[in-house]
């Protein structure tokens, strides 16, 4: 009888153990199935937040964006735009409200995926760089530093810019053309197909090198300054600006504005050269043709160095900063709005990880 009790108890324990094991296996299997879908959902939410941030920020400053490009590429022998206020008034007078937002559809079509990829790439790059840094002896508990953030931002900028560069090139041409341009691109796809057919596929990446060089300090400094300023404010709490671990929207906007100012000032000359190189091969651009109908060759550059040399020689060093004022007026609120919109949308969508994390 005792033997039967032992056998029964053993059998019962075995059954319970088997059930527990099966339950654990089922739980692990369930988690294994859910984890990838949960991770994919997080990626999608992050991409959506980045896209919304880019679209909102660029639309808010579209008139200044167009004026900046017109100032960058206008022929020095036929000046139409003499400054921010005069330029905006001239566009309003000659082209109406639609002229102020010309090229914005193309810009948003480019900036939405660009911004989505950029913010997501920054998150992934910062995690990867921090992981590599922690592999070094003595750095096991290290956190992101401004230099590491600069590197992550540079990686994100290069990836995002390269992925959407043809759209940026086409957007520049659509933005520059006016009602008097002999050649009229009808839209994004017409411009893409026309450039591809008449100038070849390499034309879609004309100006890519100065863009790569320029995006490293620009995007890198944007992220590094923004995140470092936020960390400093939360840690030191100067002037009573921070009451708890969260920054107000106004304070975050100020951090974004500071980041945008630093980044665009350092990288602006490369942006001018990039934009001018994008116009190479487009002989019908009204802004590069003089009053007698002849193209003075202002857009005939053989490369980045040649573009720098000719620009400075014919127009002076100040030409590298043409359009800086409207760009400053534009980029400061644009970067600020983009950062804050990104974080707010991620909060709304319930994404746990922010760029600071």
Quickly describe the structure.
This protein is mainly alpha-helical. It has helices spanning 2-60, 62-73, 84-100, 104-134, 146-176, 188-199, 208-236, 249-278, 304-315, 324-349. It has one domain (12-349): Mitochondrial carrier domain (Mitochondrial carrier fold), CATH 1.50.40.
Q: What this model shows, in words?
A:
The protein is mainly α and 357 residues long. It has one domain (12-349): Mitochondrial carrier domain (Mitochondrial carrier fold), CATH 1.50.40.10. Helix content is 73%, strand content 0%. α2 runs antiparallel to α10. The longest helix is centred in the N-terminal third of the chain and has 59 residues, at 2-60. The termini are far apart. Mean pLDDT is 77; it is low at 1-12, 25-34 and 286-298. This is Mitochondrial adenine nucleotide transporter ADNT1. It is found in: Mitochondrion inner membrane.
Please supply descriptive tags for the structure shown above.
357 residues; mainly alpha; Mitochondrial carrier fold; 10 helices; globular
Q: What does the main sheet amount to?
A: none
Given this structure, which CATH class is correct? Mainly Alpha
Strand content: under 5%
Rg value: 27 Å
Give the full name of the CATH homologous superfamily: Mitochondrial carrier domain
* CATH T-level topology: Mitochondrial carrier fold
State the end-to-end distance: 64 Å
Tally of helical segments: 10
